[in-house]
Amino acid sequence: MPSDSTKKVFIKTFGCQMNDYDSAKIKALLGKDGYEPTADPGQADLILVNTCSVREKPEQKLRSFIGEMRPHRQRGAKVGIAGCMAQHAGEQLFKRYRKDVDLVFGPDHVPQVRALVEQAQSERVLQNSFLDDDNYAFVRETTSEGRVGAFVTIQKGCDNKCTFCIVPATRGMELSRPSALIVEEVQALVAQGVREITLIGQNVNSYGLKVPGELNFAQLLYRVAEVPGLQRIRYTTSHPRDMGPDVIQAYRDLPQLCSHLHLPVQSGSDRLLRRMKRYYDRARYLDVVAQLRDARPGISLTTDIIVGFPGETDEDFEHTMSLLEAVGFEGSFSFKYSARPGTPALRLSDEPVDPARMQERLMRFQTRQQELQLAAHKRLVDQVMPVLVEGASKWDEQVICGRTSCFRMINFPGDASLAGQIVDVRITRGFTNSLRGELAESPAGA
Ligand code: 5AD
Ligand code: SF4
Asked: How confident is the model at residue 138 (pLDDT cuts 50, 70, 90)?
């Protein structure tokens, strides 16, 4: 083995923000044992794949990845599987890949990754139990040096039972992290130069409700907003049912709260929302949208949509299309329904939607969504917006990029030394997925 100082870890991450965050934590923790991240698996002493089971074809993706890593393992690298699949199907994976994989561990065991990797040097390791509240340790963000934005986990798991979703089976019951620790972490990050915090959890709006004496989510937002020097607060993900008046009021009171909300609706059809067990209907969703727009004019709304949920008729789908028009979402993630092992929706699978029809619906939705996005971006031309500069653009050294409060990516000529500052930018062009601008002369707003 190479000496400690030259150990390298390669991490491949599939899936959601939670997984990105877990991978960042894994890198930070292993960094304490001398592992440097590498983008080249050929250089790595340790190769980890952080898996996702929410949709698509996770098994195939994993199999091909493990196959590609085989030569690296043969030259001595250790290979491990982390993430939701490791939680959900740990035993099977451990057996199936007995010749290819040294380590399998679920998301609850990320905090122990250093010990697990150490153990895997001498024996194969499987660790996919759920930890109860007393034994789970949220890991502090430790790698924010030089970054403008950071994620802070406020909760793990989810107590909802949306019938399509595998998350409750992979991430376990909802557990809220104590607010005092969240605030402490935000303070530490701001002291290191972070300007924007994104609070993350599967269903942040139910934060703290199970813990006597704990702040609720709205109170947590007010508390975090008190941290001096913190300029922007975002959060994800919200459940429309739990979007209460107190959180909506926060959009009136807290200028730090960004003018963007990701509020997954999944479908515009009440019949399907019932089958999905989402516990809100279209009218309630539209009411929340109206209240949000009243509290924060110009707020940008994005969503998640599933097409082809079992039993979805043409009429149901038309309701989704009409909801897209009614809200005028500024962006969305849209997915074809994918049956997931162990989820309640499997019981509905006697009414599958024809795959060609599913594809057609997805294309129609995405095409219209892109038209709406482009039109919304063009309407912004000539407006001046405060932009938090992230750094140099990937494509052009003379150009820097950042995000508006409403989460739109904007590129404009400027110096990368502005990173971390909020500057006023005049929008000059709108594209489907981003804006182009130029620095405005007037001084920066908040
Ligand atoms: N099939 C398709 N999409 C799904 N999502 C969750 N589970 C499934 C599934 N079985 C989508 C939902 C959710 C997003 C994170 O992933 O839209 O909001
Ligand atoms: Fe899954 Fe529903 Fe929980 Fe979101 S709220 S993680 S979709 S069960």
From this structure: confident
